[in-house]
């Protein structure tokens, strides 16, 4: 049977940006439609449409209908009934557009009719009706067919259910624009929104606030309690942020534990400050996750458009700078971007770069400060203190570079180096025949919390062959209270390994006395701030109490920062065990301490 289709007819699509599946199947679909037209003509005559219906068409699930010039349905296939759930009886003779297509979009139906009127076939996305007043999204193709005199005889409509494709498309869309974990807009959508906000704000002279929010201590939680808890924390933090903003604002996840909030019409910097404060308080209230009561906080950097930058990159960069400043100033706060902050950040950046190089070039060394036994007057131990010899600036004190090393994570390799070097040096002196004493090494919280910390300590002891009883580790109170359960188990492990532990700067943190007796500790070190002014009666009482507490728990007690005879006498009369401070000796180079240890002096206590 000869088949006549108008090959020249144009195909008009509903949307300019056709979906992938459309592109893939356009030619295929047109072929199917022409094939259908042949089949249907034939079928109309033979009335064996159902039998002749191509198996492939049925398999793919293409529904088709023939309609006459007045759009009345004259023929349908089984698939149409399968897809719509309608009966043949009800479908035949109905107007295709009224009966099968949704009238939600009258414009669309008019557009299709116009196309057909203009001799143009049409394809595009439509909403189809189905039984039970329901709808499904379909890809719809309609083409006319003509009689021998090229007069319009009717139309063939073919359509198929694309709900699955739409769902996939939606999912891909979401994946491209939203963060999978928190469901917040991701970096790319955030840039889009910020750009839009900038265009709008420039036109209407609005103030935009951009806030970069970085969670403090998130990494610790992730490292110690696992990614599962870390993920829950991020989800909860995101919902707290979202709850505090308006619909027109955007809270996006930039990656890791970093969020960015855009307030497209903040009104004033004061409003931004209020909101930043609100974020701080929302994020610092406890999180109850997987049976843990967790505390974090956030450091927030705020930039205002147009004051702090005119494009998104500059605004975000400056918010980042301000955020770092907030972090450096003790975390759990917010900072606005200012030129001064910018300057100090540049300096900090230079220092950080220099610091990384110093680590490579090993510009670090250790000084050692003796500890003196108050009863015997002899050196009972020494504390290893890191020093950085900067080629231009000379000696850099650890109070300057340790916080930087902690922030950047460089404290891990640096701290490990200090531990190894202190053990190696101590063992070398012992091998040389000097009287064996214990070396104390300071630890940062990041080292202590690292999963492999215990094995690193054991490895270093094994490598340097130092007897563990000659190593003491100094941790601070804040290290302890951040994760009490973790601390108890780590301190037990260290005790099992034969290593002693001291609490440094005792009295300045928030040690819970409840827990103090649960820790395997050997020493409490009274913070120098109490010693420096013993003319203040409160300080005297604190020192007396710490000594009594330490002895009650069978720990040794050391006073640091002892500079005067009076301080020494007060401590002696209160039974303090050991003294460390300028009164006896400043921190010394390895060579100088070596000479001192060789003399093994007895100090007058
Ligand atoms: P810290 O562990 O409390 O060390 C004692 C600090 O007090 C040292 O400062 C020491 O030089 C100083 N000091 C000792 N006696 C006196 C005194 O009589 N008067 C005064 N005014 N100061 C005295 P330094 O060496 O600047 O170290 C500061 C802090 O840096 C240390 O405090 C420690 O927390 C940290 N640190 C030093 N080395 C390391 C290290 O290897 N790793 C880590 N994580 N931290 C370290
Ligand atoms: Mg110390
Ligand atoms: Mg100290």
What does it look like?
This protein is α/β, with parallel strands linked by helices and 605 residues long. The chain has three domains: 19-168, PAS domain (Beta-Lactamase, 2-Layer Sandwich); 178-353, Alpha-Beta Plaits, CATH 3.30.70.270; 363-598, EAL domain (TIM Barrel, Alpha-Beta Barrel), CATH 3.20.20.450. It is 48% helix and 23% strand. It starts with 10 loop residues before the first strand and ends in a 6-residue tail after the last helix. The relative contact order is 0.06. The structure holds ligand C2E and magnesium ion (2 copies). Ligand C2E binds next to strand 15, helix 15, helix 16 and strand 19.
Short description:
With 605 residues, the chain is an alpha/beta fold.
Oligomer: single chain
Strand order across the largest sheet: 14-15-17-18-19-20-21-22
Task: Tell me which CATH architecture of the largest domain applies here.
Answer: Alpha-Beta Barrel
CATH class of the largest domain: Alpha Beta
Specify the overall morphology.
Answer: elongated
**Radius of gyration over C-alpha positions, nearest whole angstrom:** 38 Å
What is the domain tally? 3
| Fold-level CATH name of the largest domain | TIM Barrel
The helical percent reads 40-55%
